[in-house]
Amino acid sequence: MVKIRRGLLIFLLINILIIGLLVRSVFTLITLLFEDGARDAILRAEIPAPNSELIEQKPRFIPKIIHQTYVNESIPEHWREAQQSCIDYHPDYEYRLWTDEKSRHFIATEYPWFLDTFNNYPEPIQRADAIRYFVLAYFGGIYIDLDDGCNRRLDPLLSYYAWVRRTVPTGVSNDAMGAVPQHPFFIHVIDMLQQYNRSWLLPYITVMYSTGPLFLSVIWKEYMRSNPNEEGRVRILMPDEYNRHEWSFFTHHRGNSWHGKDAQFIFWMGRHWLLLTILGFAAAGLVGLGAWWAYNRVFLEGMAPPPKGAQRGSPGRKFPRFWRRFGAKQSYELLENRHEV
What is the Cα–Cα distance from 214 to 295, expressed in whole angstroms? Predict the structure, then answer.
């Protein structure tokens, strides 16, 4: 009985260890579910109204540069209005459109250590994601996706050292963000890109977690733990200030989505997360019961004491099944003409 209890204790300790390692590996993802970004939010009271005299009184740190990315110079018709709105609102800003050719040349010139990774990304959107981090780290300025139009001048957002926008249901997005040159957050982001360059079976998850918003959210959450000073702080543009009102900074236009059927499956999972959570716990319980049954059959039966009076090695003593098969002096061979031993 003591040996059986000891075996049960070992089994429980092993399972606790495995669960602990799994939780540790996804701890940042779990904490993102409870992160609302309120601590670093750009408060609406901080933002002057469009055309307010207060705009000129606020200090400005981010340079007046707007970055956007596309395959080439030929912007699709359904994005030209959004692109032009940002250009029209900011005639005094430098405008840079990063085509594939310009992006590759920039990486080869300024960050040659990343060129192989950049060229070998399986999805074009991964290169489009990566280049935005590099140009913000190098030049500073504001990056805007082509399906985001400008609803007003962005001058108030120049008064922060770095900012990204809050997304729903959790985390931050990489479709609109700004920073001063060499901001420590974006330096850290580009430094982590190669470490996160892995395949996660489904293209959507691979993109999201290697270069996309989920990657940026995880890096942001980990960066926050370092408690950066004011210059290293990353402020959060909340949804209302992003595009929900007439006084918000951006408008959203139709996008040419790169999402495939795998993304539709992920979205379906998001809509039915409660059911899937219950099923997940049920499946985990069944796996645990199955593991305990297997452990009991393989190990604990072999640890049971032999019947009273049974001789050592006699049939009365039970050994674990794997030991009886692989530890016996005689062996079994699976042949076409099977021989009995």
Answer: 38
Torsion of CA 222, 168, 160, 147, to 10 degrees: 120
In the chain, the amino acid numbered 101 is E
The set of residues, in sequence order, having a beta carbon less than 8 Å from that of 280 and lying 6+ positions away, is none
Choose among 3, 53, 28: nearest CA to 214: 28
d(CA 211, CA 121): 10
Q: Which pairs with CB-CB distance under 8 Å and at least 24 residues apart come from 26-33?
A: 28/218, 28/221, 28/222, 29/218, 31/221, 32/170, 32/171, 32/217, 32/218, 32/221, 33/170
Question: By three-state DSSP, how is residue 222 classified?
Answer: helix
3-state secondary structure of 1: coil
Q: Which helix (H) or strand (E) holds 96?
A: strand 94-98
Distance CA 178, CA 91 (A): 18
Cα 211 to chain centroid, rounded: 8
Could you tell me whether strands 141-144 and 172-179 are parallel, antiparallel, or unpaired per DSSP bridges?
antiparallel
Q: Letter for the amino acid at 209?
A: Y
pTM, full prediction: 0.73
User: How far is it, in rounded angstroms, from Cα 128 to Cα 148?
Assistant: 15
Of 128, 135, 141, 140, give the one whose Cα is nearest residue 66. Answer: 141
pLDDT tens digits along 11-39: 667 666 666 655 544 556 677 777 888 99
- Read off the DSSP letter of residue 280: H
pLDDT tens figures, 79-133: 999 999 999 999 999 999 999 999 999 999 999 999 999 999 999 999 999 999 9
Residue reference for tokens 């809050």: 166
Beta strands in 99-241 (DSSP E): 141-144, 148-150, 162-166, 172-179, 235-237
How would DSSP label each residue in 123-141? SHHHHHHHHHHHHHHHT-E
Neighbouring CB atoms inside 10 A of 88's CB total: 9
